[in-house]
Amino acid sequence: MTDQQTPPSTASTPASASGATSGAASEPASAPPRGLSRRRLLGTAGATGLVLGGAGAAAGYTAAPAAATPLTSLGADRAMFHVKHQPGITTPLQARGHLLAFDLAAGAGRKEAAALLRRWSDTAQRLMAGEPAAHGDTDIARDAGPSSLTVTFGFGHSFFARTGLEKQRPTALDPLPDFSSDHLDKRRSDGDLWVQIGANDALVAFHALRALQKEAGSAARVRWQMNGFNRTPGATSRPRTARNLMGQVDGTRNPKPSEDDFDKRIFVPASGEPAWMANGSYAVVRRIRMLLDDWEKLSTHDQEHVIGRRKADGAPLTGGGETSAMDLEKTDSEGNLVVPLNAHARITRPDQNGGAAMLRRPFSFHDGIDEDGTPDAGLLFIAWQADPLRGFVPVQRKLDRGDALSRYIRHEASGLFAVPGGAVEGEYVGQRLLEA
């Protein structure tokens, strides 16, 4: 966890009754197809009338015709598939998420991987538009709109050897170093292929999960799956930085797309190497268990000194509001630093790490209660950066050396994935790699 905030974005846009959309967080690769899907005109307001008394009672229920009303709730929001950067990176936090890693089946190689990515891309495009899958749709999301559904695809280190593409493997995808705080389960780490699914409706997210799993067919099998959630958009009176399961405002200093160097920090440049990663990014994925029973024994005062921020509003202990600059030199009446040297927010500041920055876009998780009664809960940490060796690694090394929060968390799974740029119209994700 780092002291960063998920930035606002316009990646999801309301879908009108005509099927047109407006705005997108990423620059469209080409004009999206226009059309009216069965989910774009949803429901009717007062579609049936109930006639009571006299002749009406004898006749029973009478249908009252009403004009179809376009969906205006969260379900109408749509993220675009054909964009410069894949959806699900700068998209605002979504209420429900699924993370999956797949391994290619024995004997499957580059040809099978290309066919799989082609099928997956077609399915993702359809579902993100609120349309059914092309084959064997399960109707799970039949009554819902797109609900800001995003699907993001990435490649793990092992994918390149499996497909004979070792020469195309980026150096930035070299395995992460070992950290002293790691307690990693190898069965829930890494993988040939990575898929991130996000939506603001749980059934829409599961629908995509099921469709993509089915499309994998005999080409790949699920290595691991993790399920997460966030606060539903609109649940607060105004937009706010998310809170994690420790109750802390989590992510105040996330880089923002409005910043001049945002793209440089988060995305591989169009002229970068390898060429197939142009406009792409690297995702570090960590399952971080929160030791909530131990954390909740601390007083609010002690929790705030572990983090370095007030629990109520996320403001630094040195004063001001959530976005106020933290005065790292400020001392109290006894000469002690107001923000302790080992406070999480101090250690993770970009200006304390040579400018290292990541775009954090996490989900919380709760996978039940262990036999000893402790909750299996925490954070599905997802951090986006142009180069993990300059983003995640230096920050995590510093956290390893003395973060006060380390006593209350445990890193249980890890993965690093190369996520190529968005697919242009008529292209599938990863085509520039697999058909080079």
Automatic annotation (TrEMBL):
Pfam families: Dyp_perox_C, Dyp_perox_N. Keywords: Heme, Iron, Lyase, Metal-binding, Oxidoreductase, Peroxidase, Signal. InterPro entries: Dimeric_a/b-barrel, Dyp_perox_C, Dyp_perox_N, Dyp_peroxidase, EfeB/EfeN, TAT_signal. Transmembrane segments: none annotated. Residues 1-37 are annotated as: Disordered. Binds 1 heme b (iron(II)-protoporphyrin IX) group non-covalently per subunit. Residues 86-230 form the Dyp-type peroxidase N-terminal domain. SUPFAM superfamilies: Dimeric alpha+beta barrel. The keyword Nucleotidyltransferase does not apply. It is an enzyme of class 1 (oxidoreductase). Residues 241-422 form the Dyp-type peroxidase C-terminal domain. Belongs to the DyP-type peroxidase family. Involved in the recovery of exogenous heme iron. Extracts iron from heme while preserving the protoporphyrin ring intact. This is Deferrochelatase. It comes from Streptomyces griseoaurantiacus. The gene is efeB.
